[in-house]
Amino acid sequence: MPPPQPTATPALELRGVTRRFGTHTALDDVDLTVAAGEVHCVLGENGAGKSTLCHLVFGTLPPTRGELLLDGAPYSPASPAEALRLGVGMVHQHFSLVPTLTVQENLLLGRGRRLRPDRAGLAERLGEIEQDLGLRVDPAAVTGSLSVGARQQVEIVRALLDRPRLLLLDEPTGVLGPADVERLLATCRRVAATGTAVVLITHKLAEVMRVGDRATVLRGGRVVGGGRIARTTDDVGTLRDDVGTGALSAADLVPLMIGRDVRMLDPVLAASVDVGATAAAPRPGVPVPGERPPAVLDVRGLVVEDADGARLVDGVDLAVGHGEVVGIAGVEGNGQSELVAALSGARGPSAGQVLLDGDDITRATPGRRTALGLGVVPEDRHHEAVVPALSVTTNLLLGRLGAYRRFGLLDRRALRADARDLAARFDVRAADLDAPLSSLSGGNQQKAVLARELSLDPLRCVVAAQPTRGLDLGAVDDVVTRLRDAATSGVAVLVVSSELSELLATCDRVHVAYRGRLSGPVPTDAPDARDQVAHLMTGAAA
Amino acid sequence: MLAALAGAPPAEAAAALWDGMVGTPYAIGSAVNTAAVLLLVAAGFLLAHRAGLVNVGGEGQICVGAVAATAVGTALPPSVPPALALPLVLLAAAAGGAGWAAIAAWLAVRRGVSEVITTLLLNFVGAAVLVLAVHEEALLRQPVTSSETLPQSAPLVEAAHLPLLGIPGSPATVAPVLALAAAGVVALVLHRTGTGIRLAAVGLSRPAAHRLGLGVDRLRFSALTGAGAAAGVAGGVLVASAPHVLDDGISSGYGFSGLVVGLLARGSCAAAVAVATALGFLVSGGINLQLAAGVPASLTQVAESLLILGIAGTAIWAVRAARPRRAHRPDPTSPRAEATP
User: Fold this and answer.
1) What b/e string do you get for A310-342 counting C-beta neighbours within 10 Å, with b at 16 or more?
2) Are residues A237 and A304 in the same domain?
3) Distance from the B264 Cα atom to the nearest Cα atom in chain A, whole angstroms
4) What residues in B contact A370, CB-CB < 8 Å?
5) Is A14 helix (H, G, I), strand (E, B) or coil?
6) C-beta atoms of B193 and A408 within 8 A
7) Is any Cβ of chain A less than 8 angstroms from the Cβ of B330?
8) Candidates B204, B330, B335; nearest CB to A441
C-alpha cells in the first residue's frame, strides 16, 4: 500500500455503506468523506440514521454492505476497543463516566492491563492536552459532583488521550447550556486545528453554521446533500476565507434536512432551527399583559428536598392563568424536573402549596389530580409517561379502564373504538393500535401521550416537561400546535423546556430556573427577550 | 445412567419410571393430583409475576395454608355437611397462605424490601410453624397415647375430605378440577379484565402506573397476597387428600416445583397447565422408580432436576430459534413505525 498523502487521503471514508435492521434500512448507500483537520457535521433529524452511522464507525455494529476506510486503509472494527486502538475516539450522547469515581480514575478505567495504573503518564498527557487545546480537567474531582459541561469535557479529554485520528461527537450539545455549547464548539475547532478529523453529529443547525467546515445531510438513511458551509460571521475566532461560491447557507440546509421549504414552516418550527422569525405568533384569545387572569395553576412557595435535605426546588412561586402559556427555561438540572414531579404528584413537596382552580392538590394522588383536570406530559417518556411494552390502546386509556367494565370483564370493543377515535383526533399514526407502543416512532409516542392528557375531561391545566425532546421537526410542530390550541381553548399551559427558541416562540412569558429558584418572568414579546433569558440562565438574577 | 450408579439396570429403571408415570390408573391418578398442587402454586405465581413480583414463598404459604386448613378441618363437628366443610377448609387454607404472603407484601409495598428475599425467608419460618403445630399437643398434634404416636395431626373430619373423581383404582380427587378452575380464573383476570391490564402496567413500569393514577401499592399487595392464597389452597388440598392428616413433610418441595412451573410457563396459564401436568407425571414416575427399581430417593430427585433443566434448556432454545435473532440493542432512534402512512 502506498504511504497515504496527507492532503489527498481522507481521514475517514465511507463507500456505499448500507445498514439494515430486519426490513428497515437505517443507512442506504451512504458515501461520506471526512478530511483530516476539518470539522465535518453530519446533520439530520431523528431517525435519519446519524446514530447508526456512529455505531458503524465506532465498531458497535457492522455494515450490511459497503466499506469503510480509515486513512485510506480498509477499516472494519469488530468492537469499540478495536476502533479505539485504530485511532477513533468517540464522545457519546449519554455520558459513560462512573459518577462515584474521580476524574482520574475514570480516565484510567479500561486503559491496558497494568497492575498499577499509569498515573504519571496520565498527568503528563493531561498537561499536553491542556497546553494544546486549553482543555482543563481536575483529576481529583469526583465525577458526579461536576457540572454537566465539565463532565462532558472529561469525556472529550478521555477520547483525546490516545491522540485519535478521528473524533466522533454524537449530539454533544443536547444537555449543555449556552455557555458550555460555546466552549464545546471552540474545542471542536481547536481539536481540528491539530490535524484530527472531527465528526460532529447533530440536528441543530445553528451549531453547524458556527463550527462546521463541511456538512453532510442525512434524511431517511440517505445522503441528500452536503458540501462546504458558508460563513457570514465567524464567532469562534478562527480565520477563514469564505468567498461563498457554492457554499451552503442555513437556508439551503433546512429544506435538505426536513424535505420541505423554510417558507412552509410554522414560525415555531423555524425558530427551533434558528431560521426566520423568533417572535411568538399572535394567538387569538391571549390575554393582554397587565390584566392577568385569575390563576388556574397557582404554586406558592414550593420546596422540594432530596433525601439529604438539599433544596432542589427552593421556594417557587408560579401562576398560570386561563389560556396562558408559561414557559420555564433553564439548563437542565436546575430543579425543573423536581418541580414537575411535585406538580404531577410523583414527588411530595416538603413545603408550599399547589392550587388547581382553588383546589389544594399539594398532596393529592396523581389520580385525583387527573380527575380535577391536570394533564401532565412527563419529561421521561419511557419511564413515566407510557408503558412501552403495552399496546397503544392500553396506553391511551390505561387511566380510565374503569369506564369500560361490562359484566366484570373489559369491554374491549368499546376500548378499541375509543382508542381509534383518540388516535385519529390526535393524528397518532400506528399500523395497529394493539401493537406495543414501543413500535411507534418517538413522535407518535409523544402524540399518544398528548392525546391521553389533552383529552381529559375536564381539562384545566397542562404541565408539559421537555415535550419536544428527541422529536423530529414535524412532530415538534405538532406537539407545539396542540399545546397552543389547548391554551386557546382556555386551558392553562406550563411548558418546561431547555429549547429556548421553542419556548420563546410558544409562550407568553418565560421564567428561568436556576438552582431551584425561578427568576423572571420575561414577556416573550419584548424585543430582547432572548438575551434577557439567556442572561438569567447564567444565574445573573439568583 | 444414574440408576445404574445406584445398582439398578437402566432398562429396569426406565420401565419403572414409565410404569410410575402412566402404567396404572393409580399412577395416573396420583400424577394428576400432584399436577393440581403444582398448578395452584404456579397460577398464583403468574398472578404476582404479572405485577412484577416474584413469589418464591410457595413452600411457606403451602405450610401455613395446610396448618390453617387442618385447624379448621379437625375442629369442625362431624355433623357439618361436606358442602359447607370443604369450602370452609379451603377458605381457611387460602386465608392462611394469603396472610403469610401479606407479611412479605406489606414489607415490599411499605418498606421497599425485596419480596424475593422476604418470601424466601418466610419459607423457613412457615416450615417451622408447621413442625411446631404437628409436634405440640396443645396445637394440632393428635392425642399422644403411646411413645409411638407419630407427630402428625388428627385426621380431618370426613366431610372435609376432597371427594374422589370416582375413576376405579384411581386416587384422583377433584383437586385437578379445582386447579384448572383457578388457572382459568387467573387467565381471565389477567387477560380479560381491567385489573389484569393494571397489574401488567404496574409490573412493567411503576412510575408510569403511578402517574396514571393507578393504585400501585394496592395492586402489588393484592397480587402477592393472591399468590399466597393460591399456594395456601394448594396446602389445603394436600391435607384434604388421603391420608387426610397434617405431618411435617406434607409439602415436600411443591412450593419450589410450583415456582419452576410458573417460571417455565413464561406468563401463560395454558403453558402452566401443560408444564404442571408434565412435572406431575415426572414426580409420580420418580416415586415408582424408588419403589420398584430401588433407586435411592436422592438420585431420583437428581434425575428429575436434570430432566427439568434439560426441558427448560431446550424450550428456551426453541423460543430463541423461533424469534429473529437480535444482533444488537434496538436503535432507539430508528423510525420503526414511520413506514406506515
Assistant:
1) ebbbbebebbbbbbbbbbbbbbbbbbbbbbbbb
2) no
3) 21
4) 212-213
5) strand
6) yes
7) yes
8) B335
- Kindly report the nearest CA distance between residue B267 and chain A, in angstroms: 14
The 8-class DSSP code of residue B250 comes to S
- In chain A, which residues have their Cβ closer than 8 Å to the Cβ of B197? 390, 394, 398, 401, 410
**Domain identity same for A204 and A322:** no
Q: pLDDT digit string (tens) for A31-56?
A: 888 988 889 988 877 667 888 888 88
The 10s digit of each residue's pLDDT in B89-110 is 999 999 999 999 999 999 999 9
Measured in whole angstroms, the distance separating CA B240 from the mean position of its chain's CA atoms is 16
Residues facing A89 on adjacent strands: A167
Residues spanned by the domain of B111: 10-141+156-315
User: Domain holding B78: CATH number?
Assistant: 1.10.3470.10
Residue B301 lies in a domain: yes
- H or E stretch covering A34: strand A24-34
pLDDT tens-place string over residues B164-200: 888 888 888 999 999 999 999 999 999 989 899 999 9
A contacts of B205 (beta carbons < 8 Å): 383-384, 386-388
Count of the separate structural domains present in chain B: 1
A368 interaction partners in chain B (CB closer than 8 Å)? 213
| Structural domain containing residue A424 | 386-455
Cα separations (Å) of B77 from B42, B70, B141? 33, 13, 18
Q: Is residue A518 part of a domain?
A: yes
Whether the predicted pLDDT of A202 surpasses 50: yes
Using an 8 Å CB-CB cutoff, list chain A residues near B337: 429-431, 439-441, 444
Domain of residue A150, CATH code: 3.40.50.300
Q: Residue B333 and residue A409: Cβ atoms within 8 Å?
A: no
In this structure, are A37 and A73 located in the same domain?
yes
